């Protein structure tokens, strides 16, 4: 999408605040958004917390500063609300790696398996899944599934591999990856660790195993933030998208947070190109014109909602898979 023009001279921050009030809108932002967007959001969070906020808000409009699958999740959970995404091209490489027809065929190859699916996927793939997970809820949800139940896990093979190693479960993995977390370099990380002896590494489970092997903590974006808040030392190496460091620096200005490097030795290649498409200008236009707007056909929404409802229930620990009724889909 083109950058909106002729907004010169506008006080974007003030205009966004005015529109937010006029439209009874809530601005939800992911930790990977640019600092100026994080700073004006009503709520900044990880995928699970953003889903919960979207399900609970009484605003009329949700302006979702994140990527498309996150805004779609908000619409699936809150269909009566208008959901806008500043740039409709804000996709995700994990979603792209998992076309619904191929995922349905994969399911059909494993008829006894249930599909535990990472939230970073399309609404169609959610509709073909039994339970959605986020990186912060995956382990808790997995622990509620009987040990002898075969499980397909997609689309992130790194998160799936991490869960399999950590829990000893035998997961059938879909071969997708996040291009951002794949870009970290083990060689450069080891050099950085040598420069900062004693500094722990906190990594997102979307990182490949060669990076996770060097991590002192592995968790979701919120988990990494919580780890930073509690760590006794004064330097942390952060192996996830570097915009999350903004929250750390705001909360702990006297500590040092260093983005883990890619092959070129710095962390700029680990900026998510999809998240970066959202700008203040586009957010202003989205609130002004209520477009680009997320629309999901009702039949698809209801199919996708089932697996998201299962996630919200299991993530809060209130039910096991057996209590959720016949959530298995055939995949054909
Ligand atoms: P979190 O659920 O940890 O916020 O992760 C979302 C994501 O897209 C990471 O790349
Ligand atoms: Fe998708 Fe990776 Fe960007 Fe997260 S960081 S939105 S997984 S491309």
UniProtKB/TrEMBL annotation:
MF annotations from Gene Ontology: 4 iron, 4 sulfur cluster binding; metal ion binding; quinolinate synthetase A activity
Binding site for iminosuccinate: 30, 47, 118-120, 135, 204-206, 221
Family, similarity comment: Belongs to the quinolinate synthase family. Type 2 subfamily.
Cofactor binding note from Swiss-Prot or TrEMBL: Binds 1 [4Fe-4S] cluster per subunit.
Top-level taxon in the UniProt lineage: Bacteria
Catalytic function, reaction form: iminosuccinate + dihydroxyacetone phosphate = quinolinate + phosphate + 2 H2O + H(+)
EC number of this enzyme: 2.5.1.72
Places the protein is found: Cytoplasm
Role played: Catalyzes the condensation of iminoaspartate with dihydroxyacetone phosphate to form quinolinate.
Stored Pfam families: NadA
Keyword check for Metal-binding: yes
InterPro entries registered for this protein in UniProt: NadA (IPR003473), NadA_sf (IPR036094), Quinolinate_synth_type2 (IPR023066)
Keyword terms, alphabetized: 4Fe-4S, Cytoplasm, Iron, Iron-sulfur, Metal-binding, Pyridine nucleotide biosynthesis, Transferase
Binding site for [4Fe-4S] cluster: 92, 178, 272
Keyword Lipoprotein: no
Gene Ontology biological process terms from the UniProt entry: 'de novo' NAD+ biosynthetic process from L-aspartate
GO CC terms in record: cytosol
Pathway membership: Cofactor biosynthesis; NAD(+) biosynthesis; quinolinate from iminoaspartate: step 1/1
Protein name (record): Quinolinate synthase
Cofactor entry: [4Fe-4S] cluster
